[in-house]
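Running this now, will post back.
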Amino acid sequence: QVQLVESGGGLVQPGGSLRLSCVVSGATVSTSRMAWYRQTPEKQREWIATITIDGFTTTADSFKGRFTGSRDNANNTIYLYMNNLKPEDTAVYYCNRVPEFFPSWGEGTTVTVSS
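Update: finished.
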């Protein structure tokens, strides 16, 4: 059974940075495209970025220049680097395989941007 465990969230001031991690167990990510999403109570799940098998990141326009991803296939882990964080980035962040999601999503990691 595939498990996704996101971590690295927390409380950060506006303008700050965070690195989120997503550790995958039960599957090998080296052969999968992986993506980051976020969700708030007010919004549907929002796509942030996709990390290709070779580590290239495609980022949604609204996050370009601030967010980027990477992967560590040896450790079955993907990352999301977030810079210049804004209060509107407050959300729960998730990872999953794309285009075919793993059936079970992780619990996500909560990012709160506030002074």
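The two ends are 40 Å apart (CA to CA). More later if anyone needs it.
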